[in-house]
Amino acid sequence: MSKSLVAYFSASGVTKRLAERLADEIGADIFEIQAETPYTDADLDWQDRDSRSSIEMNDRSCRPAIRTKITDMEQYDVVFVGFPIWWYREPSIIDTFMESCDFSGKTVIPFATSGGSGMGSSGRNMAALASGAKVLDGKCFPVNVSGRELADWAAKWL
Ligand SMILES: Cc1cc2nc3c(=O)[nH]c(=O)nc-3n(C[C@H](O)[C@H](O)[C@H](O)COP(=O)(O)O)c2cc1C
């Protein structure tokens, strides 16, 4: 059986709860990707073109710093990477995460929560940042997804 990790970023707790449920269902380790400078409510205002999130998401090369690095990534075969959809894709801090770890030989499965959008270009963007890894398109889940559905979805890679 392959060893799996659920790594996630969550700005307002929705993806955090989903990630915890997923890890619990499949018996995976869990790691929270935290911004070195946490996001405030004002930072998350997508209607303000000058907010931190707007500025970051408008710059494809933006790589917000992560507080703690994973040091024992070698032990995992499968890594589920969770995040909220921001502007139809993965938040820039997920790009930082993808670049800061060695995913070669691993299967990376993105998952997300959103206000209604799907995964968009997230999987392709993440694949471009993780050479040697198999990065899938992944799936966006409604908040009320059942534990059973989560477990069945994840079982394909375990
Ligand atoms: C800056 C920003 C951009 C967002 N862009 C989208 C989007 O493009 N499509 C969408 O459906 N939801 C969008 N949302 C809503 C979030 O994806 C949604 O609320 C998510 O569940 C939040 O997860 P979290 O609590 O883990 O941060 C956006 C939210 C923020 C803060």
Automatic annotation (TrEMBL):
Pfam families: Flavodoxin_4. It comes from Extibacter muris. This is Flavodoxin. InterPro entries: Flavodoxin/NO_synth, Flavoprotein-like_sf. Residues 4-158 form the Flavodoxin-like domain. One of its GO terms (molecular function) is oxidoreductase activity, acting on NAD(P)H.
